[in-house]
Write a structure and sequence with these properties.
Number of strands of chain A: 2
Order of helices and strands of chain A: HHHEEHHHH
Helix content of chain B: under 10%
Structural class of chain B: little secondary structure
Strand content of chain B: under 5%
Helix content of chain A: 40-55%
Shape of chain A: globular
Radius of gyration of chain B: 16 Å
Number of helices of chain A: 7
Number of strands of chain B: 0
Distance between the termini of chain B: 5 Å
Shape of chain B: extended
Oligomer: heterodimer
Largest interface: A-B, 103 and 64 residues
Radius of gyration of chain A: 15 Å
Distance between the termini of chain A: 32 Å
Largest sheet of chain A: 2 strands, antiparallel
Largest sheet of chain B: none
Chain lengths: 172, 76
Amino acid sequence: MPSVCGWNNWGAEDSSGEIQAIYNAIQSVAATTKVDHRFILAVMMQESKGCVRVPTTANGVRNPGLMQDHDGTHTCNEGTPQIPCPDDEITGMIQDGAGGTAAGDGLAGTLNQAEGLQRTGAQGFYTAARIYNSGSLDPSGDLGAGGSTHCYASDVANRLTGWTLAASSCTL
Amino acid sequence: MFLQTTIAVMALIASGSAMPFMKREANQVVSGALATDSVTNSDGGAATDAYTFYQGDGSTGAGWPDKSRWASFDSL
């Protein structure tokens, strides 16, 4: 079983029921938002390692849940880990990250933005990841430039080809 | 990855957090060429646990992986 939550001191590990709920949520949200389910999975792993009890972060902006989305209402840890994390919170966290919230774009919105920037194919997804992390694409077009986590787009690209435990060589 | 309902992933320090710039509505849908219209678990190749440092604009010309190199959902 995974030891994600404990390693980070976020509370109890995901139960098998919670993991099944994550799977179901990704599949159903992928169908309704038309975001590739692999992309949802990769960004979820980037943001929370799949721990349902990941804490809400707040660095001027509130980012809760599995997708650390834009001020969404769904979370299982706003200071106190919730055990169990209910199925509808899990679905809500994935939906908020992929489908967006009133406060900001989800992956669907950032993919639409990437297409608007004439970036399609895999480049469109890596661009959408960059926009999800920092809010915009740097004017240079460099996915490592601008604010937030510089390695983010490289990390997501690697997750999409199977990166899990190997050491990162990103030096940004 | 979701075989037998388990995730075979170990913990590392979580990285990245999303920061919004613009107000948008919820329930967004991908509307153009980047939309994925069907949800299929065997939609790619085998996963490779390795890290390549990708730099630049995300294009295949800059060395980033084409979608044909993405692993399938059920191998992730």
